[in-house]
Specification:
It is a single chain. With 257 residues, the chain is an alpha/beta fold. It has two domains: 6-197, 2-enoyl-CoA Hydratase, Chain A, domain 1 (Alpha-Beta Complex), CATH 3.90.226.10; 201-247, Lyase 2-enoyl-coa Hydratase, Chain  A, domain 2. Helices cover 45% and strands 16% of the residues. The chain has twelve helices and ten strands. The protein has helices spanning 30-44, 67-70, 75-81, 88-91, 108-115, 142-150, 152-161, 167-173, 185-197, 201-213, 219-232, 237-247; strands spanning 6-11, 14-19, 52-55, 60-62, 97-101, 104-106, 118-122, 126-128, 165-166, 178-180. The strands form two sheets. It has a six-stranded mixed sheet with strand order 1-2-3-5-7-10, sandwiched between helices. The longest helix has 15 residues, at 30-44. Bound molecules: acetoacetyl-coenzyme A. Acetoacetyl-coenzyme A binds at residues 24-25, 27, 63-68, 104, 106-108, 111, 130-131, 134, 138-140, 142.
């Protein structure tokens, strides 16, 4: 896959997509986002891939959308470009997305991490929605996803002051799953991806879908959705194999069907 702004690798049943604009702290320009969405959609259909890690480098996951690219735009330019609409396609990716973040995870970078399903952070990670400092506000999900993750008051403080929080605060506030020493953040994400890749893929897909449903439905609608997905799994070979293997006290062999 010939990309200029991202690097894509595959191993052990998962893929790693690494942002590759280190000179500008992985600022997310339109081209990078086009490549990212394209790569994710291809990996989503790739049977060898059962989880996808998004990462940057030790200094920055991403310091936000590319300010220089947007600086001179008019409102109508922004409306026509509608660049953040592309980000919605990431929400439709069916395979689990793990963000492995270190350093600056700001603005669109924080929003991109929050679009993932799991966030592993290095001790040096710094999270923030600093858009207020450049005369705008979060535009790629920050006001919605951050509020759902940390609650109204902490989200309000971050969005209105633009202040960064440390990895340690982020884990306490429920914004990340786990904080590890910098030398292990990618290793930790890889171990998690490998573990998820060893699970029955259809169950993983339907379980992810059901958890995400909790964000846009009533409890009743969500419970109904969950139950149907649960029943649906009884049409899979992997449900038969999983339950048979349990009773026979052996390791299940998944077919992914
Ligand atoms: N867009 C474009 N370029 C960026 C960038 C961004 N978001 N963030 C950093 N860069 C560039 C800098 O311009 C600089 O490039 P040059 O060497 O060519 O000048 C390079 O990356 C290194 O950055 P700094 O010299 O500023 O590094 P620092 O260590 O002194 O500061 C920082 C780091 C605090 C993260 C600072 O770079 C910064 O504040 N960046 C902007 C953060 C921001 O406001 N993000 C929100 C963007 S808007 C958005 O994301 C909207 C949305 O909702 C999607």
């Amino acid at each position: 896959m010939p990309y200029a702004n991202i690097l894509v690798t595959k191993q052990d049943g998962y893929a790693i997509v690494q942002f590759n604009r280190p000179d500008v702290l992985n600022a997310l320009n339109i081209k990078l986002m086009e490549e990212l969405v394209d790569a994710l959609e291809i990996l989503d259909k790739d049977d060898e891939v059962r989880a996808i890690i998004l990462t940057g480098n030790e200094k920055a996951f991403a310091a936000g959308a590319d300010i220089k690219e947007m600086a001179d735009a008019t409102a109508i330019d922004m409306l026509i470009r509608d660049q953040f609409a592309r980000w919605d396609r990431i929400r439709k990716i069916k395979k689990p997305l793990i963000a492995a973040v270190s350093g600056f995870t700001l603005g669109g970078g924080c929003e991109l991490a929050m679009t993932c399903d799991i966030i592993i952070a290095s001790e040096t990670a710094k999270f923030g929605q600093p858009e207020i400092n450049i005369g705008v506000m979060p535009g790629a999900g920050g006001t919605q996803r951050l509020t759902r993750a940390v609650g109204k008051y902490k989200a309000m403080e971050m969005v209105l002051t633009g202040k960064m929080i440390s990895a340690e605060e982020a884990v306490r506030w429920g914004l990340v799953n786990k904080v590890v020493p910098i030398e292990y953040f990618l290793e930790e994400a890889k171990a998690l991806a490998k573990e998820i890749a060893s699970k029955p893929p259809v169950a993983v897909r339907l379980a992810k879908e059901a958890v995400l449903k909790a964000f846009d439905t009533t409890i009743e609608g969500g419970l109904e959705f969950e139950r149907r997905n649960f029943y649906l799994l009884f049409a899979s070979d992997d449900q038969k194999e999983g339950m048979k293997a349990f009773t026979e006290k052996r390791k299940a062999e998944w077919k992914g069907k």
